[in-house]
DNA sequence: AACCACTTCAACCGCTTTTGG
DNA sequence: CCCAAAAGCGGTTGAAGTGGT
């Protein structure tokens, strides 16, 4: 009864890998590819579970792994993507070449989460804490809210771009929002525009990460200190979303639908149509 | 120097999803 | 379509490292 173990646990080594094991695994995969992870340890002569081999390879031994501390830009990207995707570490990692889901998860749990807390933001929702929030009106889940925000922008984009008969390079979106759709959107010109808007918003009300004023200091994982916008710390639920760490979402918040659609629509109207299909050319 | 508290991150565990027969 | 195996994923753990007293 119960699940069959992923591998025969007896006589298997656990814990940290030693350099000899690493070398054995690298040599084997370079020679034969990983093939079936389950059978790899036996074939390679390792006393490890296949799962452990896969983890070791994908997280540490792969040649394209980027080691070293995260840059400020990478950290910002992780925060922004987390706002869209939530704890979908693998999906977030796919947007940061050379970084693994485990690494990003650790970064989030050890640095970024604390940083958001330090700034008075809820790491789950990326919104300012609202300790007296009414219990009668439960908040929508972050995923739902983000999906609604992106869906709003998507609908505007679809309306605009279908008019131009040039809707992305992907099939029409599903009626039920597909989480991966948000990644595609993020990578599309729409996503770029949101990021652009974010950058512009910072110049008006600098984001907590980049601004420098009389404020709370926090340390980033990359060793850079940053200042917390006084508007944000202790802000109430009436704080404009544009002041938050990810100003990009202010443009399509469903908390003020009028602003949302107006801004998003304006944003889309402002697309440089003559140039904006260049991203298609980059695709092989 | 010794101890303790705290932080970091590599690795494990168990669940879910995907794949193939 | 069903089922089992394999792969993938996210949460959690614990050893090692670091800083403070």
TrEMBL record:
Matching InterPro entries = Homeodomain-like_sf, Myb_dom, Myb_TF_plants, SANT/Myb
Localisation per UniProt entry: Nucleus
Query: Which keywords describe this protein according to UniProt?
Result: DNA-binding, Nucleus, Repeat
A single GO molecular function term of this UniProt record: DNA binding
Could you tell me which residue ranges the Myb-like domain spans?
9-61, 62-112
Return the PROSITE patterns for the record. HTH_MYB (PS51294), MYB_LIKE (PS50090)
One Gene Ontology term, aspect cellular component: nucleus
Task: List where this protein forms a coiled coil.
Answer: none
Q: Does the keyword Nucleotide-binding apply?
A: no
Ranges for domain HTH myb-type: 9-65, 66-116
Query: Which CDD domains is this protein grouped with?
Result: SANT
- The annotated region (Disordered) lies at 236-258
State if DNA-binding is listed as a keyword.
yes
Q: Please classify the protein's predominant subcellular localization into one broad category.
A: nucleus
Note the PANTHER family from the entry.
MYB FAMILY TRANSCRIPTION FACTOR (PTHR10641), TRANSCRIPTION FACTOR MYB17 (PTHR10641:SF622)
Task: Indicate what this protein is called per its UniProt record.
Answer: LATE MERISTEM IDENTITY2, myb domain protein 17
Could you tell me which species this protein originates from?
Hibiscus trionum
Taxonomic lineage is: Eukaryota, Viridiplantae, Streptophyta, Embryophyta, Tracheophyta
């Amino acid at each position: 009864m119960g699940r069959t173990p992923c591998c025969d646990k007896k006589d298997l080594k656990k814990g940290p890998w030693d350099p000899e094991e690493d070398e054995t695994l690298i040599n084997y995969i370079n020679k034969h590819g990983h093939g079936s992870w389950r059978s790899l340890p036996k074939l390679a002569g390792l006393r490890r579970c296949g799962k452990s081999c896969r983890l070791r390879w994908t997280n540490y031994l792969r040649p394209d792994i980027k080691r070293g501390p995260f840059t400020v830009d990478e950290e910002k990207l992780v925060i922004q993507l987390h706002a869209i995707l939530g704890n979908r570490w693998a999906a977030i990692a796919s947007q940061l070449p050379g970084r693994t889901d485990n690494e990003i998860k650790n970064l989030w749990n050890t640095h970024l989460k604390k940083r958001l807390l330090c700034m008075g933001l809820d790491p789950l929702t990326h919104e300012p804490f609202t300790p007296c929030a009414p219990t009668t009106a439960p908040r929508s889940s972050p995923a739902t809210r983000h999906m609604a925000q992106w869906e709003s922008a998507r609908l505007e984009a679809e309306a605009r771009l279908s008019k131009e008969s040039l809707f992305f390079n992907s099939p029409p979106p599903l009626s039920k929002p597909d989480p991966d759709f948000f990644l595609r959107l993020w990578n599309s010109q729409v996503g770029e525009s949101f990021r652009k808007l974010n950058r512009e918003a910072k110049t008006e009300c600098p984001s907590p990460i980049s601004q420098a004023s009389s404020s709370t200091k926090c340390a980033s994982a990359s060793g850079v200190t940053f200042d917390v916008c006084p508007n944000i710390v202790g802000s109430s639920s009436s704080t404009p979303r544009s002041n938050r760490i990810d100003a990009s979402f202010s443009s399509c918040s469903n908390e003020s639908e009028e602003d949302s659609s107006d801004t998003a629509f304006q944003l889309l109207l402002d697309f440089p149509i003559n140039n904006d299909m260049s991203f298609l050319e980059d695709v092989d």
